[in-house]
Each structure stands twice: as structure tokens, then as C-alpha cells.
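Researcher: Let's do a round of design. I'm pasting the C-alpha cells now; please hold your answer until I've finished.
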């Protein structure tokens, strides 16, 4: 293999979820950079791969990136993996990729599992447009502020969330986006994989009734139900206002307010 940097996706639970190409790259790379060497060793041992590993995580990213670039410049190939899923997706690696590109090193993606994709494709929410929002802030006030901002988005929202915060987060979602369809994707690809669907309030009640909430969670918020999915009546309503002397912008604003939609949604629906 050439001195490239390979960004290799690894399983998010089920060890069978790894591509043939990922296994070949891990076998052939000179060095594997990973978050937790013990975690990655488990995967490598499972597949009988004996390769040197080095730690690359949030706390040593800056200095370690420089060392790894130097090694690739000397002709070594490096595979970057995270503890689970796709590196750089709420995981370290961005700094290394940016530095490699700046140094003229080729960066090769080896796609595979990521919780965001696994959750999205089985959630049953719209997939034509979605926004991956990473982790929500840990404090309620900040979280509500961020949720208010995301509320304006027209697509499905996908978050990573910790099990010990999920009840509070659902409470905040209920306060900000009460009627939205919510999906909790828990323990994807693992023995206790489950999808819970309902409003934030309903899911909060379901989880609160359990002795504890454990496991890894990806949380999805569906788009607002459009009371008027057909664009024609919306356009008619706007035209009626325009005929009465209201500007198009104001007409869109008024119709949006009356239908509980954002201006942007009305604008898009009438295009
Ligand atoms: N880079 C990873 C990826 O591509 O999925 C994500 C890393 S992020 C630090 C870890 C978070 O991803 C977890 O806290 C959880 O929210 C989500 N996650 C990871 N594995 C999951 C799983 N098996 N089921 C549901 N969510 C998962």
C-alpha cells in the first residue's frame, strides 16, 4: 500500500459489520491509529490481524497528528479507526485528515457502519433530507436553546445521546417540539437492539417506567407534520392575500403562521 491515510469504519456492535476492504486495509497498513488500543485490539484479534497500533484521541490529537504525518511522509501507510463506527463522526480524526491533505497525502475513505445511518434507515422517518447534529449540550438551558434553533430545520434531525441524559432530553424536546415524531434507536446491531417510536412525552413515559436506561442511543426527530402537504392550496392562499394588496413576503409570512409552518417551509412548498 502507498503512504496514504485510510479512514476505516469498524462495527458499532456486531463484529460481522465490517467490509472485506476494511479488513484488507487493516491487514496491509503499516500502522493502525485508534482511540483506545485495547478496544481496537479486540477487533483485530477477532479477525487475526497482528499490526502495531498507536493511540490517537481527543487529548493527544494535535501532537500525534504531526507524528503520524511525518511517518506517512517517510512512506508508511496508516489506517485510522475509532472505537466504533466511522472515524470523525463525533469522533477524533478531523485534525489528522486536514493535516494530511495539507501535506499532500492522499486520504482514502473506507466506508462502513455509522450509528447515524443505521438509525436513520430503520427509523421510518423521512430520509430525503436529514441533519446530523452530533451530541446535544449536557445542560437543559443550553439544550433547549439548541433545540429551538434546530426546530427551524425542515428535514429529519439525528442526535447522539447518552443513556443517563435521555429522560431530560426527551423532556426538553417535549417542551420545544411537542408533536414531532421521535425515534429512539438503542443498541443498534447488538443483542438488545430496539427502536422506540412516539412523541417525546410518550417515549419519556416508556423509558421512565424501566428500572434504568442503558446502552447506546441515537435519537431522531421527524419533521413537523404539514397540515397542508399540497402546495396548490398554499399558493392559492398566498395569491388571495396578494390580491388584497399584501406583499408576497408578508403573504408567505401570514400563511406560514396560520398553518403552523416556517416561512422557509411555505416558500419551499410553493416553489
Ligand atoms: N463514530 C461513531 C459512528 O460513526 O457511529 C459515533 C461515535 S460517538 C462518540 C458514540 C455515540 O454514537 C454513542 O454515544 C451513541 O449515541 C451513538 N452510537 C454508537 N453506537 C451505537 C449503537 N450501537 N446504537 C445506537 N447508537 C449508537
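Researcher: That's everything. Go ahead.
Model: Designed sequence:
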Amino acid at each position: 500500500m502507498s503512504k496514504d491515510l485510510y479512514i476505516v469504519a469498524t462495527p458499532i456492535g456486531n463484529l460481522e459489520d465490517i467490509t472485506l476492504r476494511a479488513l484488507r486495509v487493516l491487514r496491509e497498513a503499516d500502522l493502525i491509529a485508534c482511540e483506545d488500543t485495547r478496544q481496537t485490539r479486540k477487533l483485530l484479534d477477532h479477525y487475526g490481524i497482528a499490526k502495531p497500533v498507536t493511540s490517537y484521541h481527543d487529548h493527544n490529537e494535535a501532537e500525534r497528528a504531526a507524528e503520524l504525518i511525518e511517518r506517512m511522509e517517510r512512506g508508511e501507510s496508516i489506517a485510522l479507526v475509532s472505537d466504533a463506527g466511522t472515524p470523525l463522526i463525533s469522533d477524533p480524526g478531523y485534525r489528522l485528515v486536514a493535516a494530511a491533505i495539507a501535506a499532500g497525502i492522499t486520504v482514502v475513505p473506507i466506508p462502513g457502519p455509522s450509528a447515524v445511518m443505521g438509525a436513520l434507515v430503520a427509523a421510518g422517518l423521512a430520509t430525503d433530507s436529514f441533519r446530523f447534529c452530533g451530541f446535544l449540550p449536557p445542560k437543559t438551558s443550553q439544550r433547549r436553546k439548541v433545540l429551538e434553533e434546530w426546530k427551524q430545520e425542515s428535514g429529519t434531525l439525528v442526535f447522539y445521546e447518552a443513556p443517563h441524559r435521555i429522560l431530560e432530553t426527551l423532556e426538553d424536546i417535549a417542551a420545544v417540539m411537542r408533536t414531532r415524531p421521535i425515534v429512539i434507536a438503542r443498541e443498534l446491531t447488538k443483542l438488545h437492539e430496539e427502536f422506540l417510536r412516539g412523541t417525546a412525552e410518550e417515549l419519556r413515559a416508556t423509558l421512565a417506567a424501566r428500572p434504568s436506561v442503558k446502552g447506546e442511543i441515537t435519537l431522531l426527530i421527524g419533521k413537523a407534520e404539514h397540515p397542508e402537504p399540497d402546495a396548490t392550496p398554499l399558493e392559492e392562499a398566498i395569491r388571495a392575500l396578494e390580491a388584497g394588496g399584501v406583499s408576497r413576503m408578508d403573504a408567505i409570512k401570514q400563511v406560514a403562521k396560520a398553518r403552523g409552518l416556517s416561512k422557509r417551509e411555505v416558500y419551499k412548498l410553493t416553489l
